[in-house]
Write a structure and sequence with these properties.
Blueprint lengths: L12 H14 L1 H7 L4 H11 L2 E4 L2 H12 L14 H4 L2 E4 L5 H10 L5 E4 L16 E4 L19 E5 L11 H4 L5 E7 L6 H14 L5 E7 L3 H9 L8 E5 L4 H8 L14
Parallel strand pairs: 1-2, 2-3, 3-4, 4-5, 5-6, 6-7, 7-8
Helix pairs in contact: 1-2, 1-3, 2-3, 4-6
């Protein structure tokens, strides 16, 4: 009597692929393990594994850069049918460096649709080479102001984390981003006295940027709930303007928005 030692001897290939895809999507460690099972599961898993890439440390940046450099150096049966850098659709780099490797990753991953930056964009030294039309500048990226010259003019969705001191830089957004339709501002506001200044900037942006369809103000800070209520109770407000509390870390919000129907943009407003 012979025994069939294949793991799934009678399972149709399309069902097997669904099972592998579900396992790979549910847990990154499972996805990594599946790339080692066979050349078939590797080819099925890689698109899911590299669809969304989140780099939060210098080590992760260096490792990912090395992975991209050695994609086609292994045996032919293990070589991805599509290069890994073309699989990346959502890319977040919250590490502060190394800047040369960050630049290499940005220039290599040419199919990115949503890019989130936590490093100082001004240190790139030139325009962001990513073609992503959705851009999130968070953390340290706009500490010294908004580097408009580094932002592609084709950007349609922009999310910026700013302080009260750098918020006024948004007044000239229309001069640099003619295709901008969706703007999110995450600003720490600790006192009702600061609301007047913030709302005047919001009003000026809506007046000057004719293409704007949505401006989302996310209030950060311990008094965000009270301040959001104050804004919402105001009698006169542009219909394109929405306001909410910033719940949790903005980097986590970006990650959750890759798989859940909410985030900084309403579900129908994603690019």
């Amino acid at each position: 009597m012979t025994t069939d030692t294949r793991p799934f001897p009678d399972m149709p290939i399309d069902i097997l692929r669904e099972v592998v895809g579900f396992a790979a999507s549910s847990n990154i460690q499972s996805a990594l393990s599946l790339t080692l099972v066979s050349s078939y599961t590797r080819q099925w898993t890689l698109p899911l594994l590299y669809h969304t890439v989140h780099l939060s440390s210098s080590r992760a940046v260096s490792k990912f850069c090395e992975t991209l450099s050695h994609t086609n150096t292994g045996p032919e049966r293990l070589t991805p049918s599509i290069p890994l850098h073309r699989r990346v659709k959502n890319l977040a780099i919250f590490a502060l460096g190394p800047m040369d490797r960050i630049h290499r990753i940005l220039s290599t991953c040419t199919n990115v649709q949503s890019l989130a930056c936590g490093f100082s964009v001004q240190h790139i030294g030139s325009q962001l080479v990513s073609p992503a039309r959705e851009l999130h500048l968070l953390g340290m990226s706009c500490r010294d102001g908004i580097p408009f010259t580094a932002i592609p003019m084709t950007t349609t969705h922009l999310h910026v984390q700013l302080s009260l001191d750098t918020l006024a830089y948004m007044n000239c957004a229309n001069d640099h981003l003619p295709e901008l339709t969706h703007l999110a501002l995450s600003v720490p506001i600790t006192h009702v006295k600061s609301l007047g200044m913030v709302l005047s900037v919001v009003e000026r942006i809506l007046e000057n940027c004719s293409e704007i369809q949505l401006l989302h103000l996310q209030v950060m800070g311990s008094k965000s709930g009270e301040l959001v209520d104050t804004i919402e109770q105001s009698q006169k407000r542009d219909s394109r303007f929405i306001v909410s509390r910033a719940l949790g870390a903005l980097s986590r919000q970006w990650m959750e928005a890759r798989s859940l129907p909410f985030g900084v943009w309403p579900a129908a407003s994603h690019p």
